[in-house]
Each structure stands twice: as C-alpha cells, then as structure tokens.
Write a structure and sequence with these properties.
The structure is a single chain. With about 450 residues, the chain is mainly α. The chain folds into 2 domains: about 20-245, no CATH class; about 260-455, no CATH class. Helices cover about 80% and strands about 0% of the residues. It contains 16 helices and no strands. It has helices spanning about 15-45, 50-55, 60-95, 100-135, 140-155, 155-170, 175-195, 210-230, 245-280, 285-320, 325-350, 350-355, 365-380, 380-395, 400-425, 425-450. Helix 10 (about 285-320) packs parallel to helix 13 (about 365-380) and helix 15 packs antiparallel against helix 16 (about 425-450).
C-alpha cells in the first residue's frame, strides 16, 4: 500500500488531502467499534440448546463479556503510550523527508508494541479474577470473565504490534492500510465467534470462550498481516531488520505518548464516578443514559477521523518546518469535522426518539433520553473542537495539554455540577453537567491551538 509524503502543496489542495486522510480513519473507527458490537450481538443470541450445554444463557454471557471487555480496553491503554508518540515522530520525520529516521521509529515501535503486549498479557493472566471482583462482577459470572481474559491475553503481544504499526502508518498519511486490517479483523472475529459460540456444523458450543477465541484469533491475524506488510515495505516505510533497543528513541516516543495514555485513564476514571451518580436515579434513567451514550458515540466517528488527519498533517507540516501549513491543517480538519458532526447534531435535535427507538423498545427509556440527546446535539460543533484540536496538539507532540484538560474539566466541572444538578433535574441535570464539561474541553483545546506554544515543542 503506497503511503503519502508531504510535498508542501498549495492551499487549495489542503481540503481534499484532509478529507482523503480522514475518511478511511472514520471507517477504521467504525470497524473498531463493530468488533465489540458483534461480540455483544452474538453472545446475546446464545441458543437454548447451547445454553443447556453451557450452563448459562445470554444474560450471564453479556455481563461477563461486557466487564471483561472493559478490562481488555484498560490494558490496551498501555499501547497508547507508544502509539501517540510513534505517530508524532513518524509524521515529523516524513514531513522532513527523513525516512531513515522514520524507519528507526518503525523498528522501535515494533519492539515497544511487543513489550507492552507481553506486559498486558501478564496482567490479564495474573489478575483476571481479582480485577473482575474489583469491577463488581457477580460471583456466577467471574469464571466466565476470567476465561475470556485468559484466552484473549495470548493475543496481546501481536495486538500491541498491530496497534503500534497502524499508528506509524497513520503518521505518513496512510489511513487505508489500517482500515483494511480492521476489515480483516472484523471478518475473522465474526466468522470464528459465530462458529464457536453456539457450535455450528457439529462443533461443541463454547459461548463466552468462543467470543474470546474469535477476538484473539482476529487480533493475532491482524498483527501478523501488518507486520508482514511492513517487513515487505509500505511505501517508504520498511521494517528492514529486527529491532534492537534504542533507549534514546524509546524515551522520545514515550515522552510524547505517556501523557496521552494518562489522559485516557484520568478521563475514564471520572466517567466511572459520573456513572455511579446516575445509577442512583433508578433503572429507567440509567438505561436511557447508556442508550444516549451509544447513539452519541456514532457522532464521535467523524471527530476521531478528522483528529487523525489533524495529527498527521500538523506533525508532517512541523517536520517540513512549515508552521503556517500546520496551523491551516488543524483548522481545516476542524472545519470539516465540525460540518459532519454538526449534521449529526441537527439529526439528534430533530429526531431524538427515532434514534433512541432503534436501540430500545421501552417508551419510558426513550422518553427519558430525548432531552439528553437533544442537548448533546446542540454542542456537536464544539465537541468537534475537543476531538480535532486535541488531535492537532498530539501531532505537534503537545500531549501534556490534553492531559491537563482532562484533569481540569471532568473532575472540577462535570462531577461537581452533576453532584449539584442531578438531585434537582435528574438525568437531564447529569447531561447538563456533561455537556458543559465537553464544551469547555473543546474551548480549551481550541484556545491552546490558537496560541503558538505547540509550534515550539521538540519531539
């Protein structure tokens, strides 16, 4: 797959270039989300015959896969510490036309992904059972979640390699290859899980373990494929020899990447506490909250895709020592992302019940979710700034500022506001607090990018 390099095109070529990078990234994010959705669907349809053999049904299967999936996601946060740093360094090197340096980053990214994957595997094998207890798993589903984690653990080393190499490909503007890798992963995951969960063609039903094998086999295959492609060569990038540790390069990657991983952990910790506030409102409000979150996540896809474009183009432009182009790239990425997310926002405002009704048949849940979905529809253009300008800052290597935003806004704005407003307005009060927080994050990211401190950061 041919990669793209920065050749300082004229301003008129900036818009299609942003779009060309962003659209495959949007598709990749959708497919990444689809892995979890397909597992949820297949486990949620464990047959009566399979349930009789397994000793549990869809409810227990869904609960175990949901909790175990959250733990898998937390472990993969380790990979972000390397992926964000690798993307930033690769983008700088490719923008400068220094592919010797870029390939040095590729080698260390492979090594880092493998080491982090081995750490993740060890954590999942050693702490699966106590982690399920910490997350409040009922006793009857702990063995199911533990078996899911033990099976998927063995895929983590190659999953780490895949995560890192997809990141370096994005750094040179190649978002099509990661998209194709995610297509392969989804196809394998669905096929293997479908065969094993209910035991098709005479196979014994494996239930939750079947879903785990589907995910593990798919990730291993994805890691092997992208590793093979880089060994053969993707454009100017090539893993031409097996890497040896380069402590200087590893420090550079991690110096940029660790704040990004910490940012995610800090934000998710605030979300866990926020969710605990809402659980006290009762079953219907909590169900409505989760459904609105699911619908809202659809609008995140273009934001994530254009954030990738901003990361790549800002990093490449700074590597080419073209600060003006870096600034225009970030602003153009935001402009296009805001259009797509703004359209989604208008649809959320005009047709909230229809969107919610796609996921739930309960009229009470739908009614409770209408105003929250309309509120999040209103802030979509500002939410786009949160995604895209944070991505632009990461491309510049300015990963500490997004971390600072996640330390300030969710913890000092969302949680205190929610504590004050939920007793007064119920679920709507929670979403007022959430929308104020998300809007503030967008404003702070824009304000940082509007300045010029990010232009001077060394990576």
């Amino acid at each position: 797959m041919a990669t793209q390099t920065l050749s300082r095109p004229q301003p008129r070529s900036l818009r299609p270039y942003v779009f060309k990078i962003a659209m495959p990234a949007v598709g990749e994010q959708f497919l990444n989300m689809l892995v979890g959705l397909s597992d949820t669907y297949l486990v949620g349809h464990i047959s009566l015959a399979a349930a009789a053999q397994l000793g549990y049904g869809p409810a227990e299967g869904l609960a175990s896969v949901g909790l175990a999936g959250n733990l898998v996601w937390m472990v993969t946060t380790l990979f972000m510490a390397g992926a964000v740093g690798s993307t930033a360094l690769i983008a700088r090197a490719s923008g400068a036309g220094d592919y010797k340096q870029a390939n040095a980053v590729v080698r260390q990214s492979v090594l880092l992904g493998l080491v982090m994957g081995l750490i993740g595997m060890a954590l999942m094998l050693l702490f699966a059972e106590p982690a399920m207890r910490v997350f409040g798993a009922p006793q009857e589903i702990i063995p199911l979640g533990e078996s899911f984690l033990h099976i998927t653990a063995f895929s983590m080393p190659l999953a780490g390699v895949m995560f890192m190499l997809n990141a370096v490909l994005r750094g040179v503007g190649d978002t099509k290859t990661p998209l194709l890798v995610m297509l392969l992963i989804n196809a394998l995951n669905i096929a293997v899980s479908w065969l094993l969960i209910n035991g098709q063609f005479g196979l014994s039903p494996l239930g939750v373990q079947g879903a785990a094998w589907g995910m593990a086999i798919a990730r291993v295959a994805g890691g092997l494929v992208v590793l093979g492609m880089l060994m053969r060569g993707c454009g100017a990038l090539k893993l031409d020899r097996w890497p040896r540790p380069d402590t200087s390069m590893l420090r550079r990657i991690l110096r940029v990447g660790f704040p990004a991983a910490a940012e995610t952990l800090v934000f998710q910790s605030a979300l866990v506490l926020f969710a605990r506030f809402i659980t006290h409102l009762g079953t219907v409000p909590y169900a409505a909250h989760n459904i609105v979150i699911t619908v809202e996540s659809i609008s995140f896809l273009p934001g994530m895709g254009f954030a990738v474009a901003a990361t790549t183009m800002v990093g490449q432009s700074l590597g080419a020592e073209d600060k003006d182009r870096a600034r225009r790239s970030g602003n153009e990425s935001y402009f296009q992302g805001a259009i797509f997310m703004g359209i989604m926002g208008v649809m959320f405002i005009l047709f909230p019940a229809q969107f919610l009704g796609l996921l739930v048949d309960d009229p009470a849940v739908v009614a409770a979710g209408i105003i929250p979905l309309q509120m999040v529809g209103i802030i979509q253009p500002i939410l786009a700034a949160n995604f895209v300008y944070a991505g632009a800052l990461r491309g510049a290597g300015d990963t500490r500022w997004p971390l600072l935003i996640k330390l300030i806004s969710p913890w000092l704005i969302r949680l205190p506001l929610a504590f004050w407003l939920i007793p007064i307005y119920g679920l709507n009060g929670a979403w007022i607090a959430m929308c104020v927080d998300l809007a503030l994050q967008g404003v702070l990211a824009w304000w940082r990018f509007r300045g010029n401190a990010w232009e001077r950061i060394r990576v």
